[in-house]
Design goal:
glutamine amidotransferase (chains A, B), Glutamine Phosphoribosylpyrophosphate, subunit 1, domain 1, 4 helices, homodimer, EgtC-like (chains A, B), globular
């Protein structure tokens, strides 16, 4: 199995505090030693750092810990190999272009007897069931909405309505907890385990579960900032994280959930 | 304008020596300060590091200098912005998936009045003419060969025959020196300036142009290794580099040119 970390914000934010604890699970506080990756959006482009070495011991992870990259949407993943060997092409997140935007995807869970028919617009490069699921999601969006560009892309609500039933179908094959973003919106599906927290004014102190590190968000934020952090398991031990419902699909925008199973949430 | 660096080898090789000199041109020995990037293939997957900071001063470039990544195909680019702002989405190399393989592309030169019709399978994420050219090349391959996968992908000779005339058409709009790879083969087009060198047994010493650094390749290679390095301008001052012919298309495999303007070369 693997672990997921996502961040969705209303203002570009660095993820160093959360990543510090999360990366420890890649070999130190947990067993996810078979590669890791992290993707940061900057507008419609994403930069994706992946490495087949454990996150706790990777020179690339060391870079991420020391080089603050501010982003409104971040997806990270640490891997415990179940399907597919430990090599680069099997490391999440995966990235593809659709409608002139980068799309990034990471998955936690195993899928059994999962061999979707992919017509060829998006094909997996590696051997994981996860990348097949990602290709199926993008192919479905492309088939549903056709060729689109910056002028006429579908909105988050339309996209959600297409993605959600596909995720439910995929989840019939096993565990399908996933994070997916186009740099504007974070689409998430939880079949078993995912939690989130929204941090907003007044910001408080937070303390990591995985190492003795504390940050006072009040000193590094403004009154208008809002940040949603999503993780397989809570990253801090002095804040209240909200577990996702089983088999739920939640859409995050501007640092908060805006759609839960297709229903708009209120602030 | 920009500068290009490519490497194509018959055995996974690290590019640290060449990158050391090349990165100096990103702000120290030359003016290419508007971002840079490098992509390494590992089998059919590629990892791409990009940064909007000058290569001579980038924490990501520092990582590349210190973390040897062995690869048979590498493409790097340092940017002097002409079209498109200095931001991440305009940094080369660009990357897309076709037929279950990552394809990587970088371009040196400016294109005037270049607005190809892109039907939508591949759309630019950023604002550069370069990314439009890349999308046009991939779209042309897809239209010509249709949906393919690992079982029935076209070979390098078939691909070259499709890419070469498109590159000639693009070069009518200005300067089009480019490197493009799917992890097996390096496709290159030179409209004005590109040089290469093939290093093979017996390996000799090489000394960089851009800084006082020397390496004895004999101590880090085996008799069977062969490495082709391609660059906008020769990286070493004690070896003989071969300039590309104007408006030529050269295909490299296993560390040597195998096709020049469609004609097979002999060892």
């Amino acid at each position: 199995m693997c672990q997921l970390l996502g961040m969705n914000c209303n203002t570009p934010t660095d993820i160093q505090f959360s990543f510090e604890g999360f990366a420890k699970r890649g070999g130190l506080t947990d067993e996810h030693v078979d590669g890791w990756g992290i993707a940061f959006f900057e507008e419609s482009a994403a930069r994706c750092f992946i490495d087949h070495r454990p996150a706790s011991d990777s020179p690339v992870a060391e870079l991420i810990r020391n080089y603050p990259i501010r982003s409104c949407n971040v997806i990270s993943h640490i891997r415990k190999a179940t399907v597919g060997q430990v090599k680069l092409q099997n490391c999440h997140p995966f990235i593809r272009e659709l409608w002139g935007q980068a799309w990034v995807f990471a998955h936690n869970g195993d899928l059994k007897n999962f061999a979707p028919t992919l017509q060829g617009d998006y094909l997996p490069i590696g051997e994981t069931d996860s990348e097949q699921a990602f290709c199926l999601l993008l192919q479905t969006l492309k088939n549903e909405f056709g060729y689109r560009n910056a002028e006429n892309r579908p909105g988050a609500k339309e996209i959600e309505a297409v993605l959600r039933p596909v995720c439910e179908k995929i989840a019939e094959h096993g565990t399908f907890n996933m994070l997916m973003s186009n740099g504007q919106t974070m689409y998430t599906h939880c079949s078993t385990k995912l939690e989130y927290i929204v941090r907003a004014y007044p910001f408080k102190q937070a303390h990591l579960v995985d190492c003795d590190l504390q940050v006072d968000f009040g000193t590094v934020t403004t009154q208008n900032d809002r940040v949603a952090v999503i993780a397989t398991a809570a990253l801090t031990d002095n804040e209240v994280w909200t577990p996702f419902d089983t088999n739920s699909f939640v859409v995050f925008e501007d640092g908060r959930p805006v759609l839960k199973n297709g229903v708009e949430t209120t602030l």
